[in-house]
Write a structure and sequence with these properties.
The chain is mainly beta. The longest helix has 6 residues, at 293-298.
C-alpha cells in the first residue's frame, strides 16, 4: 500500500482539515506509483496549465450548473447561457498550489469550455475562446501574485474559437489555429488593431463531413521557424507569416483519423542541440479511433481504439512514417514528455471516441515510450490507477517530476450517479519509477544556478549539482522542458530540449559536480519564456528549476 498526506478543502472553504488517504498500487514488474492528492477539487479538470509560480490553473466550463466549490466572499455570476443555473455562486476555475497541496477558487466570467491557451514569455497564461459568451474572449491570468484573478478581454479574438490549438511563436506571439467551423488562424497580440484572421484551406480539406476529425489540430514549431500542422490523418509544414504551405507530408499509414473526436495524441520528440544546431526534428502520434468509429459510437457500437503509433522525421527531405504497435489500444490518451526524454502515455479508453457518452473501457495503465530504444523494445506498461480518466481528463508535468492527473466528465452536466463513468472531481499524482526511493542516491540535486535565473541565447552556463553516488559523466545531460497547456488529449506548446554539454562534467567537491551547458541558439528552437531545467543522471532527473530564456 502507498499513502499520501494531503489537505482536503471543504466546498465552502470555511476551514481546512488534514487527512491521510491509503491508495493501493500494484507492485512487481510494473513501474510507477499513484497517489491520491484530493478526493475532490470541486470542479472537473478539463484544462490545466502549470505556472512558473508552481501553481496550476485548472478549469472546466461555466454553463452546466453548480460545481462543488463556492466562490469566495459571497461572489456570484449571472449567466444567461447556463442550461440549468442562471445565478451561479460556484467556481469553475481553481488555482492548485503544488507545494501546499491547497486549492483557491477563481472566478471566470465567460464560458471557457473546450478552449485553448499557452504561457506568454512573461509567464502569464493567455487562454483563448470557449463557448457561447466566451468564444471571442481572451483571458489573462497573471503569474506574479498569489491573489491574482482572471482578467477578460471581451472581443480579443477576431473569430470564434472553440476546439482550437495555440502555439508560442519565435517572436513571442501566440498563433491560434482552427476551431469548430473555423478554417483559419489569427494571432495574439495582433500586429495592429485591424489585423484579422487568415484562411487555412488545409483545415477544410481535412474536415470529415458531419464528424470533423480535425479539431484541436496537433501543432508544433519546427526548428526552421515554420509550423508542423497535423489534422485528421495528414500534415503540412506551414509558413504562417506568408500563409503558404511549404510541404505536404504523406498520409499516416492506414489513413485513420487521429484528431477530435477520434482523439489520439502527439508529441515533438526531444530536440538534441549540438554545436548550435538540431540535426533532426521528429513527431510521434499515438492512438485514436478508426474510420467510422464516431458514427458507430453515436449508434451504440464502440469500436476498439487504435493501438498504432507513427513517427516521422519532419526535417527530412523525403520524410516517411515509421509505424509501431502499442501494448494497449487507446483513445483520448495524453502524451507527455518526461524530463529524461521518455514519453508517458496516460489516461483514455480502449473503445469508442471522444464526445458525450461515446467512450468505453478505461485504460488504467500508463505506458512509457523510450524513443531511443530499438523498435519493438520501446514500450513499458506501468502500474494502473483505479480511477477512470475518460473524456475531458488531463495530465501535466510538475517541477518535481510527478505527473498531475485529473478530470473526466463524459456528460453534458455534472453527473455523479446512475451513469457508467461519473463526473470525476479527484486529483491524482503519478510518480514515474525515476522517483522511486531506490533511485534517490543517483538523483541529482541542482545547487546553481538559482531558480528564476534569466539566460540569453547561446550563453554558456555552469550548472552545479550533487549526486550521492558515483557519477558516470557519459550519463549526464541537461534538459529544458516548456510547460504546456493540456486539454482534450493534447499538450499545446510542449517541447523538450537536450542541451549541448559536451564532455564537461567535472568534480568540484564531495559528491559535487559541475557541467557547462550552452543555452539554445535561437527562438526557432526555443521561443523566449519560462522553461523547467533538469539535470539527468542515468535517466534519473533532478527536481527542476525555473529558468527564463530572454529574446
Amino acid at each position: 500500500m502507498a499513502s499520501a498526506s494531503f489537505i482536503i478543502l471543504s466546498a465552502s472553504f470555511d476551514y481546512l482539515f488534514f487527512a491521510t488517504i491509503l491508495y493501493p498500487t500494484v507492485v512487481g514488474a510494473l513501474g510507477g506509483s499513484w497517489f491520491l492528492l484530493h478526493p475532490t477539487i470541486g470542479i472537473t479538470a478539463m484544462h490545466m496549465q502549470l505556472l512558473p509560480s508552481d501553481r496550476v490553473i485548472i478549469f472546466d466550463r461555466t454553463d452546466f450548473g453548480a460545481s462543488n466549490i463556492s466562490l469566495p466572499d459571497g461572489k456570484c455570476r449571472e449567466d444567461q447561457y447556463d442550461y440549468i443555473l442562471k445565478n451561479d455562486c460556484t467556481a469553475h476555475s481553481i488555482e492548485y498550489d503544488v507545494a501546499s497541496n491547497s486549492i483557491r477558487p477563481l472566478m471566470v466570467l465567460t464560458d471557457v469550455w473546450c478552449s485553448s491557451g499557452a504561457l506568454m514569455p512573461d509567464g502569464s497564461l493567455i487562454q483563448t475562446g470557449g463557448f457561447n459568451d466566451g468564444d471571442h474572449v481572451i483571458r489573462v491570468f497573471n503569474n506574479s501574485c498569489s491573489s491574482c484573478e482572471w482578467e477578460e478581454i471581451k472581443s480579443g479574438l477576431f473569430r470564434r474559437r472553440w476546439y482550437a490549438t495555440n502555439h508560442i511563436l519565435p517572436d513571442g506571439r501566440q498563433i491560434v489555429i482552427g476551431g469548430r467551423r473555423q478554417y483559419n488562424y489569427e494571432f495574439f497580440p495582433k500586429a495592429m488593431a485591424s489585423e484579422k484572421a487568415y484562411s487555412l484551406p488545409f483545415l477544410v480539406q481535412t474536415n470529415d463531413a458531419n464528424i470533423e476529425n480535425n479539431l484541436y489540430p496537433f501543432v508544433f514549431l519546427n526548428t526552421d521557424g515554420h509550423l508542423f500542422v497535423f489534422a485528421n490523418n495528414r500534415a503540412i509544414l506551414f509558413d504562417y507569416s506568408r500563409n503558404q504551405v511549404l510541404k505536404t507530408y504523406p498520409e499516416i499509414p492506414g489513413g485513420d483519423p487521429r484528431n477530435y473526436p477520434s482523439t489520439g495524441s502527439a508529441v515533438l520528440l526531444p530536440l538534441r542541440i549540438a554545436n548550435a544546431t538540431v540535426a533532426s526534428a521528429e513527431i510521434l502520434i499515438c492512438g485514436g479511433a478508426p474510420k467510422g468509429a464516431f458514427m458507430n459510437a453515436v449508434n451504440g457500437k464502440f469500436d476498439g481504439a487504435l493501438n498504432s503509433c507513427g513517427r516521422i522525421k519532419i526535417s527530412d527531405s523525403d520524410p516517411k512514417w515509421a509505424m509501431e504497435t502499442m501494448p494497449l489500444g487507446r483513445v483520448m490518451g495524453d502524451m507527455l514528455l518526461l524530463p529524461n526524454g521518455d514519453v508517458l502515455i496516460i489516461n483514455g479508453g480502449s473503445n469508442g471516441t471522444a464526445g458525450w457518452e461515446y467512450g468505453r473501457n478505461p485504460v488504467f495503465n500508463p505506458v512509457i515510450y523510450r524513443h531511443y530504444n530499438r523498435i519493438n523494445s520501446r514500450f513499458e506498461v506501468q502500474n494502473p490507477s483505479t480511477i477512470p480518466r475518460m473524456y475531458h481528463s488531463t495530465a501535466i508535468l510538475l517541477r518535481d517530476g510527478r505527473i498531475l492527473v485529473g478530470g473526466s466528465n463524459p456528460h453534458t452536466f455534472y453527473n455523479f450517479t446512475n451513469v457508467l463513468y461519473p463526473t470525476e472531481l479527484s486529483l491524482e499524482a503519478f510518480s514515474p519509477s525515476y522517483l522511486d526511493q531506490d533511485s534517490s542516491r543517483s538523483r541529482p540535486k541542482i545547487i546553481s544556478p538559482m531558480t528564476q535565473t534569466r539566460i540569453q541565447y547561446r550563453q554558456l552556463i555552469s550548472v552545479r549539482f550533487t549526486v550521492q553516488n558515483k557519477v558516470d559523466p557519459n550519463t549526464i545531460s541537461v534538459t529544458l522542458v516548456a510547460p504546456s497547456f493540456n486539454t482534450h488529449s493534447f499538450s499545446m506548446n510542449q517541447r523538450l530540449l537536450v542541451l549541448d554539454v559536451g564532455n564537461t562534467t567535472k568534480v568540484v567537491g564531495n559528491w559535487t559536480y559541475e557541467v557547462d551547458m550552452t543555452a539554445p541558439p535561437s527562438g526557432n528552437i526555443a521561443p523566449a519564456g519560462y522553461y523547467l531545467l533538469f539535470v539527468v543522471h542515468q535517466d534519473i532527473p533532478s527536481e527542476g528549476i525555473w529558468v527564463v530564456i530572454q529574446g
